[in-house]
Amino acid sequence: MWNISNWATFFLRQNKTEEAIESYRKYLEKTPTDERIASVVGLYYYNKKHYKEALPYLEKIKEPKLLTSSVIIKIGDCYFADRQYQKAVEYFAKARTQNPSHAVLQEILKPLPFRMKK
């Protein structure tokens, strides 16, 4: 028996991304704790520059294997795009704690007029 997640995977293989994301969203309504699927949906919206839509999905990620410094930076970017600068800085600081030499993070922090403590 196919569930919604199986349909989403099928749609992805058929290059029907919109249908896949919609299937994943329906799946998450019934299984909101599936962080892997939440990360797929969140990263999809993030890459489409739909930051407000991406944020609730990305914030569900707690599993250390999924919550990489790159994902933490993306959450910070979402807050920055929403002009929630303090939250953005908090996430950038968290990413820096996890991976101080992350190249993207260094580029983000370079123009800021202050230095973050290590």
Question: How would you describe what is shown here?
Answer:
Helices cover 67% and strands 0% of the residues. It has 118 residues and is mainly α. It has a domain at 33-109: Tetratricopeptide repeat domain (Serine Threonine Protein Phosphatase 5, Tetratricopeptide repeat).
Please give a handful of descriptors for the protein shown.
118 residues; mainly alpha; 67% helix; 0% strand
List strands and helices in order, with pairings.
Elements: H1 4-13, H2 17-30, H3 35-47, H4 51-58, H5 69-81, H6 85-98, H7 103-109
- Please estimate the helix content: 55-70%
The percentage of residues in β strands lies in under 5%
Taking all Cα atoms into account, the compactness measure Rg is: 16 Å
Looking at the structure, what is the overall shape?
elongated
Order of helices and strands: HHHHHHH
pLDDT averaged residue by residue: 82
If you consult CATH, what is the topology of the domain at 33-109? Serine Threonine Protein Phosphatase 5, Tetratricopeptide repeat
CATH superfamily of the domain at 33-109: Tetratricopeptide repeat domain
Distance between the termini: 51 Å
| Number of strand segments | 0
The CATH architecture of the domain at 33-109 would be Alpha Horseshoe
The secondary-structure class comes to: mainly alpha
Q: Which stretches of 5+ consecutive residues score pLDDT under 50?
A: none
The helix count comes to 7
Main sheet characteristics: none
Q: For this structure, what is the CATH class of the domain at 33-109?
A: Mainly Alpha
Offer a quick outline of the entry.
The chain has 118 residues and is mostly helical. The protein has helices at residues 4-13, 17-30, 35-47, 51-58, 69-81, 85-98, 103-109. The protein starts with a helix and ends in a 9-residue tail after the last helix.
